[in-house]
Amino acid sequence: MKEGSRGGGGGSCGGQTLFAEAGGGLPRPSKDSTLMHSDPLIKSTSEEEFPTRHSNGSTASPGYSSDHSASTTDTQNSSADNSPFHMSPWNHQPATSSASSGGPLPGATNTTTDLFPSGTGLVGSLVREEGHIYSVAAIGGLLYTGSDSKNIRVWKNQKEYAGFKSTSGLVKAIVISTDHRIFTGHQDGKIRVWKVSPKNPRVHKRVGTLPRFKDLLKSSINPSNYVEARRRHHRSAVWIRHTDAVSCLCLSEDQSLLYSGSWDRTLKVWRVEDLRCVESVNAHDDAVNAVVVGFNGLVFTGSADGTVKAWRREELPKPTGKKGGKKQAGLTRHQPAVTLVRQDMAVTALAINVAAGLMYGGSSDGGISWWDRGGVGGSGGCGGVLRGHKVAVLCLVAAGSLLFSGSADKTICVWRRDGGGGHVCMSMLTGHSGPVKCLAVEADLDDCGGGRWVIYSGSLDKSVKVWKVAESAASASGNPQPPALRWDSEGASADDHGAPRYDLY
């Protein structure tokens, strides 16, 4: 039986717009790639997170080292020179370019307080983490951070509140359900489930590992449960198991299903009630980097193969007879609905804003494509491409009328949808000394009027920064405001001489 037929024959995760989706980051190149190792800018070969896509002829999913633990020396050294960012070809400027990869676009402000009301901007920086930050999630005033030190730390009011540790595998993705179960995706291909102790909210206990051992044992007995593995180290594997890193996680809108995307190119569906894998989909021809859900059951996946695909969730009919009833009850099937984009660049991150009816996809060239609900549900036509970064977009998150994009250029762009259907780059948040790998956002509890957000940004500089941003661009101090940048459906417009033209607001 084909893997994609099992079980039926990365915005807003869990129906909310409060979690970063995430992008699970970019896959590593195949081990036979020698181009990266000959690059003089490479500082280390122990870990590389942002390489180029595989060639179309590659049949193996991205390889990875099984040991990503930070050494004592690495733990003590927080210099950006040790970051995997230095190994990325997207960080290399062309010989003809004199622009800095970390600088803002012409006309853009390099501060956060000039364009936004007072009380916004950088609030603080959390630097307790021992390793590079790969994942963040926020809920109810608590911030969860995951790193390559295998630690998951919990922060409250910018102070360390609690922490727990996995036995293996760096933490590439975190998602939290409304019942406060924490799901973490790891480099070793496993998903771990945690719950807060009812006796002590600072204590987190692991309550499961996906796939469950008993499910693996049961599946391994039946030869029909084995499928061809899409990784060179495994010729075959049971279909319920990821054979490569889990790069992204997302909950369904009704919180009944957990979706996991992997470098093994599959999308797996887990039933939250009993933590069983109910479906595996051969989703892409290369690593799955992001997954988000929204728009009444649609699931969107972004891949290093350059595509964004939409999948429609279908409930399987309940069996009428007793035979097979227990096996079939509660299963779903996901059918391909539309392919939104096919491009040469890897799709690195996805975010969805259900309230605004918009979806965004970040790419390895720094562009951000967007679609409105009509496009994702029917024709698949792209509304436009936002260009505010010079190198890869690594993460996206949406809240209210704003979109936040983190990049390998170490910056965060703040975008707002304007009345004309375009997007305005309100500001560029700077301060990280390494690539911005992950983002999370939640409403500012101190803002009585609403419209202000707290943004958490995790970076390969081993820090998490906390920002506050208001949706209004009015200056409370009355100071003159720098011009904002506006992009139409084709990106930044240009005059007759080819120079960029920006609309002033």
From TrEMBL:
Alphabetically ordered keywords of this record: Repeat, WD repeat
InterPro entries attached to this UniProt entry: JINGUBANG-like, WD40/YVTN_repeat-like_dom_sf, WD40_PAC1, WD40_repeat_dom_sf, WD40_rpt
Compositionally biased spans, kind Gly residues: 1-14
Keyword Repeat listed: yes
Bias type Basic and acidic residues, positions: 494-505
Pfam (any one): WD40
Protein origin, superkingdom: Eukaryota
WD repeats: 239-280, 281-311, 386-415, 429-477
UniProt region (Disordered), positions on chain: 1-116, 475-505
Biased composition (Low complexity): 94-109
Polar residues bias locations: 53-82
Protein name (database record): (wild Malaysian banana) hypothetical protein
Organism: Musa acuminata subsp. malaccensis
